[in-house]
Design brief:
Blueprint (H helix, E strand, L loop, with lengths): L11 E4 L2 E11 L7 E8 L5 E7 L9 E12 L2 E6 L5 E5 H4 L11 E7 L2 E6 L3 E9 L13 E5 L4 E4 L8 E5 L4 E6 L2
Antiparallel strand pairs: 1-2, 2-3, 3-4, 5-6, 5-8, 6-7, 8-9, 10-11, 10-13, 11-12, 13-14
Length: 187
């Protein structure tokens, strides 16, 4: 049993007789009311998304899931293909099923496939991934890492803000939980 206070992005819960994935959440405390959690959740089977408010003491069951070490292989149209590293079984997910996690996938990336009743339902990407900057504005003399930054497009199509000193062709580390720049990576 878990409560909304235990929510994390990507976590699976049983709600309304189905399995839902927590996409995002926010803890809210008002002076006149009890604390609650506003969460955006997505049904794993239908793809329907809801934004719900949950009281902090609400209990949810966690589904019986299996995590298997896997590897991202390639993209074919709108399908992303993976391989189980223990059994070498291959399977795919649509871009819609992966959501924003597709922006963290690079060839041969090791990750976890989440299976429910033996059927793969979603992927769990690493907390940090390294991606190459493919497009960004020029750097400016005197700009620092503590500045507001500039927009950049990464090799997978992900758009984030990076510090001014990072240029095209460099590799940056991204925090997949918050979709933010962490550091420049020397390769």
């Amino acid at each position: 049993m878990i409560t909304p206070n235990d929510f994390k992005s990507g976590q699976l819960i049983k709600y309304k007789d189905s399995i839902w994935e927590v996409i995002s959440y926010q803890r809210i405390k008002n002076a006149q009311r009890r604390a609650f959690v506003r969460a955006k959740i997505r049904n794993l089977f239908t793809g329907a998304a809801l934004e719900e408010n949950f009281d902090s003491w609400t209990n949810f069951d966690q589904p019986d899931i299996e995590r298997r070490r896997s590897q991202y292989s390639y993209k074919d149209g709108d399908d992303y293909h993976f391989m189980d590293l223990e059994t070498y079984d291959q399977f795919s997910f649509s871009a819609e099923a992966l959501g924003d996690r597709r922006f963290y996938l690079t060839e041969n990336l090791e990750l976890f496939i989440i299976s429910l009743d033996g059927k793969p339902v979603t992927v769990e990407v690493p907390t940090f991934v390294d991606l190459k900057v493919t497009e960004t504005g020029p750097d400016y003399t005197g700009d620092t890492a503590t500045g507001s930054g500039k927009p950049a497009t990464l090799e997978t199509g992900l758009k984030i803000n990076i510090p001014f000193f990072v240029t095209e062709g460099e590799t940056v580390r991204i925090d997949t939980r918050e979709n933010t720049y962490v550091e420049r990576v020397a390769r």
